[in-house]
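Same chain as my last thread, 68 residues:
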Amino acid sequence: MARNLMQAGHDLVVLNRSREAMDELAGQGAQTAESPREVAEGNDVVITMLPDSPQVKEVPTRSSLPSP
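reply #2:
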């Protein structure tokens, strides 16, 4: 989804539970964030794509990414 949005000309700030996935998107032009707060600051729209209910509850309240 992120790649499609960037190909459509949108600027993205991304946060992923996988550092590798974030680095890949950064290499394609996305800005990366270290916390949900950082994603939300200065952005009008936030899209989440999470696999299941536990992650939907956990990720928005996380203060930062887990250490690699």
